[in-house]
Design goal:
The chain is of the alpha/beta class. 41% of the residues lie in helices and 24% in strands. It has a 6-stranded mixed sheet with strand order 2-1-3-8-7-6, with helices on both faces. Strands 13-12-14-15-16 form a 5-stranded mixed sheet, sandwiched between helices. Strands 9-11-10 form a 3-stranded antiparallel sheet.
Length: 405
């Protein structure tokens, strides 16, 4: 099994001003290929920190990928740190950088800017080789030392992704006969209950099993040799027949899969989730086959004018009520001409709650032409956590209704 370490450089990552995405992206692909990912590190922009990182891992892992610190500003110190680590100078990779200039030759302003930052963005340690950047302006750096390959790339996620795909095509290929993994999602069953029902899988030393709860679901990730993984999945599905369909990595995928299999159209009506429900569905390619749309009706006026929620319902029960959720979902059925609709209306906070209707209260309805079910739940957490939980819950209830049809 090959080993790797991922590192991201940037004070903005340590301060929380920016969210680290590159290591997460590569970790998923290493996972898919069965690599041993030894560590993910986030370090500051300081040159000594970069030198310490290189000293820690060169000679102790097969591959080290570094993200960030290759731009043209004062806090971009990766190239100088690598040159110091290799005990060499810097030289300009003019030939490769000219290919970047060729890409922007028809845009005078971008060409002038790109040429102006040739030094430092084309400067490469003399004992390393340059890595072409197909989407940005800074060259990457690659070298080998003590049986470790080191690749340093810009921190911009689009550039990082395109350059890793370019330099490590084997990581992104689907061919791997000796390693497999699968994901099984089970709804409304506590993780400890699941673990107790599958001791053969949990105790199988040939498998790596992760149990990942995220209300209202628990995801099991099983990794190992293909035959072992296949047998484990069969056994788990035999004990949890209501697990999401094979191949579905999320509740949203399961909703779309089930609806398409049964020739159904679906829609949403949203208040507190503000479009997240529709966005979650449309993140999945092919969603247009079954998903007609989502009405984001944040105000009472929008609920009335777009979805036909009655004034009496809003006056007697309020916008955050199962009665309002029912009328929202029925309105969505009518507006979009769908077979099923799901609605959300609630108080995501941090303000707006009361003793009767606290922050975190969300009301739902899943409706078809003939039937409907309403629900209400109080979710913990901040505004984003409440909205995220509401989306997952709404989709899980929608899936159950379509699945049991």
């Amino acid at each position: 099994m090959n080993s790797a370490v991922l590192a991201a450089i940037g004070d903005e990552l340590l301060s929380g001003a920016r969210l680290e995405k590159n290591c997460n992206f590569m970790a998923r692909h290493f996972h898919n290929k069965g690599w041993n990912l030894q560590r993910i590190e986030i370090i500051s922009d300081e040159e000594q920190e970069i030198l310490n990182l290189l000293s820690r891992w060169v000679g102790h892992t097969d591959l080290l990928i570094i993200s960030g610190g290759l731009g043209p500003t004062h806090d971009d110190k990766t190239r100088n740190a690598i040159a110091k680590f290799l005990n060499c100078g810097l030289s300009c990779a003019n030939e490769l950088y000219d290919k970047i200039l060729e890409r922007v030759k028809d845009d005078p302003k971008r060409y002038a800017y790109t040429e102006s930052v040739r030094d430092p963005q084309a400067m490469i340690p003399e004992l390393a080789r340059p890595v072409f950047n197909p989407t940005g302006f800074a060259l990457g750096i690659k070298f080998q030392k003590d049986n470790t390959t080191v690749i340093a790339l810009p921190g911009v996620p689009l550039e990082y992704e395109s350059m890793t795909r370019q330099e490590l095509p084997e990581i992104f290929s689907s061919d791997n006969k000796d390693y497999a993994w699968t994901s099984i999602i089970i709804l409304d069953v506590p993780e400890l209950t699941i673990a107790k029902k599958i001791p053969e899988v949990i105790n199988n030393q040939a498998l790596h099993v992760s149990i990942l709860p995220a209300f209202p679901q628990v995801e099991l990730i099983i990794r190992g040799r293909p035959e072992e993984v296949n047998e484990a999945e069969k056994m788990i599905r035999s004990r949890f027949p209501d697990a999401l369909p094979e191949g579905c990595r999320s509740i949203a995928e399961a909703v779309l899969f089930e609806a398409e299999m049964k020739g159904l159209k679906i829609s949403c009506a949203e208040s507190c989730t503000g479009g997240l429900l529709g966005a979650t569905l449309t993140e999945i390619p092919g969603s247009s086959e079954v998903f007609n749309g989502s009405a984001v009706t944040y105000s009472n006026e929008a609920k009335k004018n777009i979805l036909g929620v009655s004034e009496d319902t809003l006056k007697n029960f309020g916008a955050v009520s199962e009665e309002c959720a029912l009328e929202m979902s029925k309105g969505s059925l009518k507006v979009y001409g769908t077979d099923f609709a799901v609605s959300t209306t609630g108080i995501a906070g941090p303000d707006g709650g009361s003793k009767a209707k606290p922050v975190g209260l969300v009301c739902f309805c899943v409706a078809s032409e003939k039937n409907f079910k309403t629900f209400k739940r109080i979710f913990p957490g901040g505004r984003q956590e409440i909205r995220t939980r509401a989306v997952r819950f709404a989709l899980s209830e929608l899936w159950k209704e379509i699945h049991n049809l």
